[in-house]
Write a structure and sequence with these properties.
Elements (H helix, E strand, L loop, with lengths): L23 H46 L3 H15 L6 H16 L12 H21 L2 H22 L3 H28 L5 E4 L2 E4 L6 H19 L6 H16 L3 H18 L1 H27 L5 H20 L4 H21 L9 H16 L12 E4 L5 E4 L5 H28 L5 H17 L10 H13 L14
Antiparallel strand pairs: 1-2, 3-4
């Protein structure tokens, strides 16, 4: 068919169109002009819309730049250092510890206020100094001086980081907490992704079930991180139960925690929720936590096929993705009404029945390696009750009745490990230090963030009884940051200008 333009003869101008009354030839010439006019108008309209979008983007960019200029460089470096620690397997390997130390040390040096020790802080500092000093002395006595200095560096790092975070202003504290919650949410999301696609690094195959290990590559350490962050986030949401950002973030953190299948992590979360209920009140806690808990329950239910599947399929990926999206919407938007509470209780009961059928082998007290490491550490302590065997024990040997021996690199209990390494004196100093920290934190005017820090500490202390989480530096350092912002600012470091 010929597609060439048609030439209008001159005689057609004499014929009139029956509808418009205009010459046909004139109409044929006016149509292209009208199309061109409409196209030009459309172009002008779209250009205006584009200009508006560019203006809006420029306004957002300018606002973001103004907000970025108001962020203290020390806060940025502290968040970056802790994020790097979480990304590099929790800074477990010594060479990665040097990389993590650079932004953290620079952030401490750039802090507007250096750590200060008040009279109320003195018992905590003295107990920490005693524990660190005994670790070095015991290391010198037993020939493990380098391991003793590692104790010293970790304790000093925890105290300094907590002291710096404590001295931040209110705005800087909020920025630090929000930044750490975003980083922990990213850790949770990568762990969830590792389970969904069976990623060999971000997921961990154990007893036929895939568990979220994320960038720390160890599910139980990931659970310790996410439990602390989730408790702090839920504590903040009690102040504004309708806030969507904390609700969505808490949903992500809780889903990632559930994906680790960590018994100690879930137990720490339960203890932390009890602390939040006592410190903040059960009614505010329910208003702020039911939505994220229900959203996490929905997302975790959709993740079950991926946990138990031999290989990921399109069906398991789609189910997990849809459930995660639905859970995120529920966690960020649903309020704690009576209907929601009924749905949550019913869903929790159904989930427990489902878990009992599909994950019953995981949630039991049967853990031969863990109990074996307990026995091995206790035997070491009985042989060296006063001074211990020295810091930095790299092997715990347990002899079996059959003549075989089991070798454990770590004790799945930090308290028993300290007893085995530093003896009864080290154990007393450790318990004293932790008790003084709890007493220092607990106060009537703690506020939501303060109670959230105490809840995070309670979760970590319980988790330490079942895993070697203190040996992964990112875990105690993150706890130190949360505890620092939970403490009241030391007024002794600030000087008020004299009036005229």
């Amino acid at each position: 068919m010929d597609q060439s333009p048609r030439i209008v003869p001159a005689y057609q101008f004499a014929f009139l169109d029956p509808i418009t009354g205009l010459p046909v030839g004139l109409i044929n010439l006016a149509l292209p002009l009208e199309c061109a006019r409409r196209g030009l108008c459309a172009a002008v309209g779209w250009s205006r819309r584009l200009g508006g979008c560019i203006g809006l983007a420029g306004g957002i960019r300018g606002r973001a730049l103004r907000q970025a200029r108001g962020i203290e460089p020390s806060v940025v470096l502290l968040v970056a250092g802790l994020a790097l620690a979480l990304y590099l397997q929790g800074a477990f390997v010594p060479r990665t510890q040097l990389l993590v130390a650079v932004p953290l040390v620079v952030g401490v040096l750039l802090a507007p206020r250096l750590p200060a020790v008040t009279r109320q802080d003195l018992p905590v500092v003295l107990a920490a100094a005693g524990l660190a000093g005994w670790a070095v002395a015991d290391g010198a006595l037993t020939g493990h001086l380098l391991a003793g200095f590692r104790y010293l560096l970790l304790i000093a790092g925890v105290l300094v980081l907590a002291g710096v975070c404590r001295q931040l202003s209110g705005t800087a504290r909020g920025t630090l907490v929000n930044g750490l919650l975003v980083v922990c949410a990213a850790v949770a999301a990568l762990g969830w992704f590792g389970v969904v696609v069976h990623h060999p690094a971000w997921g961990f195959l154990s007893a036929g079930m895939w568990r979220a290990s994320s960038t720390l590559t160890y599910p139980n350490a990931t659970a310790a991180v996410l439990a602390m962050a989730a408790l702090v986030c839920l504590a903040l949401r009690t102040g504004d139960p309708a806030a969507r950002w904390p609700g969505g973030t808490a949903t992500i953190l809780l889903t990632g925690l559930a994906a680790t299948l960590s018994r100690a992590g879930l137990g720490g979360l339960a203890i932390g929720l009890i602390v939040l209920g006592i410190g903040i009140g059960w009614r505010p806690l329910l208003r702020g936590a039911v939505g994220p808990l229900l959203g996490a329950l929905v997302a975790t239910t959709g993740l079950l096929p991926s946990i138990t599947a031999h290989t990921p399929t399109a069906v398991t990926i789609v189910v997990a993705g849809l459930a995660a999206a639905a859970g995120l919407v529920i966690g960020s938007r649903v309020g704690a009404t009576r209907i929601v509470l009924v749905v949550f209780v019913a869903g929790l009961a159904a989930a427990l029945v489902l878990l009992a059928g599909r994950l019953a082998s995981r949630f039991t007290f049967d853990s031969p390696d863990r109990w074996g490491s307990f026995r091995a550490a206790w035997e070491v302590f009985l042989r060296h009750p006063v001074t211990g065997a020295g810091p930095g024990i790299d092997q715990f040997v347990l002899a079996q009745a059959t003549g075989d021996t089991n070798v454990f690199l770590f004790v799945h209990n930090e308290y028993l490990q300290v007893l085995a390494e530093l003896g009864i004196l080290g154990g007393i100093l450790l318990v004293t230090f932790l008790a003084l920290v709890v007493l220092r934190l607990w106060r009537r005017d703690a506020g939501a963030l303060g109670v959230g820090g105490i809840a995070a500490l309670a979760a970590l202390l319980l988790h330490a009884g079942f895993d070697f989480v203190w040996h992964i530096p990112a875990v105690p350092l993150l706890a130190a940051a949360f505890l620092g912002v939970a403490m009241p600012q030391a007024s002794s470091t600030t000087t008020e200008p004299k009036g005229k």
